[in-house]
Design a protein that fits this description.
- The protein has helices at about 1-25, 45-60, 70-80, 90-100, 150-160, 175-185, 200-205, 220-230, 265-280, 280-285, 310-315; strands spanning about 35, 65, 85-90, 115-130, 140-145, 170-175, 190-195, 210-215, 235, 250-260.
- It is globular and about 60 Å long.
- α2 (about 45-60) packs across α10.
- It has about 325 residues and is of the alpha/beta class.
Length: about 325
Amino acid sequence: MKKNTFVAGVSILVFVALLAFSARQNRREMPLRLRIATGGESGVYYSYGEAIAEVLEKKFNVPVTAQSSGGSVENLRLARQGRVELAFVQNDIMTYAYNGTDLFSTEGPFREFSAVVGLYPEFCQIVAGRNIEKIQDLAGKKISIGDEGSGTEQNALQILNAYGLSYTDILPEHLSFAGSVAAFKEGKIDAFFCTAGVPTPAITDLAASGKAHLLSVGEAHARALISRYPYYSWQTIEAGVYPGIEEQAETVALQATLIASDKLDGQTVFEILETLFGERAALSRLCEKAELLDPETAVNGIPIPLHPGAEKYFFKKK
């Protein structure tokens, strides 16, 4: 009897130990904080990042901060260095980083991050004074092409090249969105490039003055750009999107994407997506662009691997 009791006791202890081991294997360690790399404080990345931070902080009960930055290129490097867990990036810059091409040819492929979700289209906006009617007229003018090394700068160069122009044909300035607007108001530049969702806060105030308008990328040039850079699409910025700009403009657009460091575990990313889609109404009240968050199109235009947590959310969720 004692032997049987001893065996039964050992069996129970083994069973409990196995349960504990299994629980440890399946348990995730909740991040002590979440940091989101965004963009300049006058841009959509920053306002959207602040909205996500507010919603996630309530969900996870840990500090979540939206950090201003120089944009996509800097954000990818911050993710690679482990200095942020989440980041906003353009899908073109994300592709360059993952493959180690273009801006990242010297550094080689970045494989420390994965895609989480596509957020909204980003338009390559070319804001100019009323005396400049078309992109060809930018030759010889003072033009802000965005922060040095930014996605905006890369887009500006590609669009200029499509029109037979290069940096040597203009007088380039490297300014942030807010810096570009300030310089334009002061007459220090004649035009500027801005790749962002519309309406972009930095442009809205300027447009109301009636002193600026948007230049169009013509269909033939857009087709040439899309043929060479398939992550582009040809889109229309409707008249009236900006007060004071009553004519529509055609241009090429990209996709704003949320990425995550691969150090962030799959279950956390899965719950981040559950929260973002479950709290779309709250997100939209905080940032208008969140209205475009759509599970049906959330992985469109993403040419790199999804984070395991995103893979589970979009394709394996029961």
